[in-house]
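Budget justification aside, the reviewers requested a transparent look at the raw inputs and outputs of the sequence design task funded under Objective 1. We therefore reproduce one unedited record. The lines immediately below are the structure tokens for a 160-residue chain.
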């Protein structure tokens, strides 16, 4: 039996399902040592009505700027990987959000995270939501953003 991690937005009932492979890949970058730097990338998946199924992610690139308490993704390498996945899937894979790590057990978004997420969701010309995942050393934080509004989500797990 395969488990999928999911996130539920209680007010609207929107569901984000994240494939186990995506969770395992992202968790592999968690900052367990004091010298570990933040990491991150893009999330790609399938939009199913108001719900999102996250099936792929980009991993950190050498050109990313990684620090203990900061991460700046260099868009070119990540965008190229996303376009390659889009082509590979016959235009089905969609950019659905971003992920990054925090050096804390149960991560919470920083003020920078919240303002960036809000800005990015406001810049969407199609109005579709984006999902943001923070990977901590013992847990995750997920939020859906649409039209500049951040909706914290409740984690759930289910078998497929």
């Amino acid at each position: 039996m395969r488990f999928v991690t999911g996130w539920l937005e209680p007010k609207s009932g929107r569901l984000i399902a994240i494939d186990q492979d995506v969770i395992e890949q992202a968790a592999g970058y968690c900052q367990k040592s004091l010298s570990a730097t933040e990491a991150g990338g893009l999330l790609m998946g399938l939009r199913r009505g108001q719900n999102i199924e996250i099936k792929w992610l980009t991993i950190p690139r050498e050109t990313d700027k990684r620090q203990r308490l900061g991460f700046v993704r260099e868009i070119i390498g990540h965008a190229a990987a996303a376009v390659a996945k889009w082509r590979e899937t016959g235009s089905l894979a969609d950019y659905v959000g971003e992920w990054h790590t925090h050096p804390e057990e149960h991560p919470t978004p920083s003020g920078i995270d919240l303002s960036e997420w809000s800005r990015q969701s406001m810049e969407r010309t199609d109005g579709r939501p984006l999902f943001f995942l923070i990977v901590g050393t013992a847990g995750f934080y997920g939020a859906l953003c649409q039209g500049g509004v951040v909706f914290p989500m409740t984690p759930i797990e289910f078998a497929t």
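The two ends are 7 Å apart (CA to CA). The first strand starts at residue 3 and ends at 9. Computational costs for records of this kind are itemized in the attached budget.
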